[in-house]
Amino acid sequence: MSAIQSERILFIGDSITEGYRSEREHHSNQLGYGYVSFIYALLQATYPSKHYKVSNKGIGGNTIRDLQKRWQRDVLSVKPDLLFIMIGINDVWRQFDQPSTISEHVYPDEFIETYRHLVQQSSAKKIFLLSPFYIQSEKGDPMRKMMDHYGTLTKSVAQSCNISFIDLQKQTFDPLMQGLDDIEIAQDRIHPSSVGHMAIARTILTHLDYKWDN
Asked: Which residues cross the membrane (predicted)?
């Protein structure tokens, strides 16, 4: 069965996934205004006979540590068919915006070990790990270099667990930055504009073999 036929799809991560969603039960904005809502809308508009149950479990400011604390409640208890995880941006960012607060820093060894443990607990039929990213075209920038490193760590977790990896930095944002200024994609280089969110949605759907000509 094609992955796109799966009905229960869960996205978990930080503020990029959250997309200003409401946590109020039955609120109309439970999917937020970002890539999760775009994916749901495109899937449902293209395959109206399917009834996709899409869940957004993104929470702003989260690191891999925060995901670990809520994994049972937000992932294991939901039992999704497809699970998408995007984490790592804040694990890197805290090392730059809070350099003296060492207790908030998540270093590579902890990142990999925690990530692998979370993935191994999940019973989802298919799991996708999405790389963290930084909207900075200068690859020598210190934060861009560290973000790329955490993307490589994410890829290593996916490979060791034999699951799918989507490199949003290389597949989505690096090509986008060739035609658009960095700030057109994300003014703070982290939180994408609607163009950036649509680019993420497009990349994910392509990995699901979404038929754009339907």
From this structure: none
